[in-house]
Amino acid sequence: MIFNQLKKMALPNAARKLLLGVKSSFSLFQTTANAEYRYLSSVSNPKGLLSLEKEEENKVAGHKNVVPLECRFVYPEFLPDPRLDHRNSLREKLERMDMMNRRNHIDIPEFYVGSVLAVSSSNPHAPEKVTRFVGICIQRGGCGLRAFFIIRNVVDHQGVEMFYEMYSPVIQKIEVLRLEKRLDNELLYLRDALPEYSTFPLDMEPEYLPEGSAIPVNPIKVKLKPRPWLERWERQELKGVQDLGLPKRFYERAAAVAKPWEKYDLMAEYRESIPAEEQEEIFAEVYSQLHQLEVTRKIMKRKRTFVKPKKMG
Amino acid sequence: MAGCFKMAGMRWSVVRSFQTFCISPNISESLCCLFQQVRLKHQNYPRLRNPIWFVKKERTKYEEHLTQQNKSFIRDVVHDKYGGPPAIIGGVSTYQQSPLKIQPMDRGSWFLGCRRSGLIARNIGIYPMWLKDGTRVLTTLLQVVDNHVIRYIPPEEFNPPRTSVRNPKSKRRLGCLLVGAESADPQNFTKEYCGLFKDSGVMPTKILGRFLISPEAVMQPGTPLYASHFKVGDYVDVRGKTIYRGFQGVVTRWGFKGGPASHGVTKTHRRPGNIGSGGEKARVWPGQKMPGHMGNRYRILNGLQVLRVNTKYNVIWVKGQGIPGGTNSIVYIYDTFLPLRKPKEAPHFPTYYPEDEEPLPDEIYSENLHPFTAPTIKYEENV
Question: Which residues does UniProt assign to the signal peptide (chain A) (predicted)?
Fold first, then answer.
């Protein structure tokens, strides 16, 4: 029944094929469509299945797709807000043009929630008119020119967080000191964690990853301070948190208010995501320029690493 | 209808005379109430006359059993008549056309207090931009699609249904300019609606609006209007239809706080509470905020600054985000009427004519706006 209804609904082709393919074994879909892909991307399909299908399609068509699918993780802000009553193709296009113009002046590197960043921004009140702040990225969001990220550090035993708008012209430089991911998509629980988990030295040296290697996932489990907390963390299915040590009634209540069926609501997912075909169109428009910028950045980086030992010597 | 008014008036005079001689005050009072309402309802109100362009627009579509050949023939006739194939202009599907059937009109010159035409645009969304000093401002993007002048009605002939309340016999000094936006296939519209466009040579448009203009600001019917009608730095008023919300309670409609969610409260979570006091004020005072119909009415936001204009896609960026109506809704843009923000220098008058002036750049930015093509903002050491 459900599948018959779904067939009628206006799902993108890829999603529909996917659904039909999995018709026989719904449990398989349940296991693969985990929450990890829901928030990181705006694509309605689990990455693995989609890429497999894409490969098959490509083989059939006899040509290779130019734009890699990872774009949506590396440049998530290029995907517009999926709310239908807020969308307009020309506005989105102009917004992308403005974003690319800004990116020509500042290098916005690839980073994820959990990466350690150093951001230098112009500040009229600072003595040298520049503020540099180092910290771990605990949240990243926003679409288009509204894209933002929050970095957190503990300075003089005081937790400090800075909210940066990615395309703000006062940002002078964004450096990635440590490129890694964490187990969760948001690290807001670091506000209630012991301070050592969000303490990073302000003069931290950048750690370079070997070229072409996958982004490492840091499996660290954070220990939270005892209650009271800012949020009810026990209700949020967090993976990067140690045992919370709460009385039994908290977990019972969490289980009672949990909505475990929501992640299987395909229509809700469709409403909250940009269809894969549209994503391809969007990235086809900007990818060549983004790729060019990335190449020039790599060249610059290599030059820098080559020059450095000379100076030291 | 007119007879009815007279009747009402006569009845009233009869009642007045009756009331003076009446012995029982109760009867006269009740009759008075009965007829007073009738009298107030029809007190010298002009009859509603719809403007000449208020004709039936949409046509009933029925199966005409046209063959494919017939259809293509009609399409060719339409293109020949209006001299333009379908085109996508600024992301909107419309028609590429260059009318101007009528002889060119004399262009007047601008003077302080002159009223010129406005534009019909689509609100296409909001996004942030930054000023040169690093402050973030939210800007609304208004796309001007395919605007053409349709008709001009001079002040002598223009007879609108609403006249000045203070001085109804005052001489009318403003003419009426009809402007259409987004040309569409004439087969979609009725004959009467298409007839409005006959003289201008413009294709029938989906949207038709009117602007009251000084006779000096008249433009030849068929003249295209562009986003560069407004200069960067100018102030504009934007009129639009607010989002329709239906019948709403006081919390949504007026922002009342409502009641507490718990602590023994029952059935009083979103209620208005008391609506007045007793004694002499023991009635509902006019203007009391109550539940009711919300949205779907025209509202105007005054004094928005034009920060940026894109001449390629005909988009205007205005400062502010409170423009009435949702994304993709139609808005009307006027020169502002706020006295201190009116233009001191001449704007493009009566509009921007691309053939008369030097070609404008694709993007025009306000002086205090930071273009994204400019390098990062850095503050001076000794400021």
Answer: none
Give residue limits of the domains in chain A.
2-61, 75-246
CB contact under 8 A, A146 and B373: no
Residues ≥6 apart with Cβ < 8 Å to B146:
B89, B90, B92, B94, B95, B181, B182, B183, B205, B224
- Is CATH 3.60.160.10 the classification given to domain A75-246? no
Question: Of B91, B136, B381, which is closest to A168 when you measure between CB atoms?
Answer: B136
Q: How close is the nearest chain A Cα to the Cα of B346, in Å?
A: 30
Cβ-defined contact of B372 to A170 (cutoff 8 Å): no
Residue of A86, A91, A163, A167 to mutate when probing chain B, most B C-beta within 10 A: A91
Give the ipTM of the model, two decimals please.
0.82
Q: How far is B250 from chain A (nearest CA, A)?
A: 25
- In whole angstroms, what is the distance from residue B210 CA to residue A195 CA? 64
For residue A281, list chain B residues with Cβ-Cβ distance below 8 A: none
At the topology level, CATH places domain B68-160+170-244+297-365 in Elongation Factor Tu (Ef-tu); domain 3 (2.40.30)
Per-residue confidence (pLDDT) for residue A306, from 0 to 100: 53
Contacting residues of B for A102, CB less than 8 Å apart: 372
Tens-place pLDDT, residues B103-127:
677 888 999 889 999 999 999 999 9
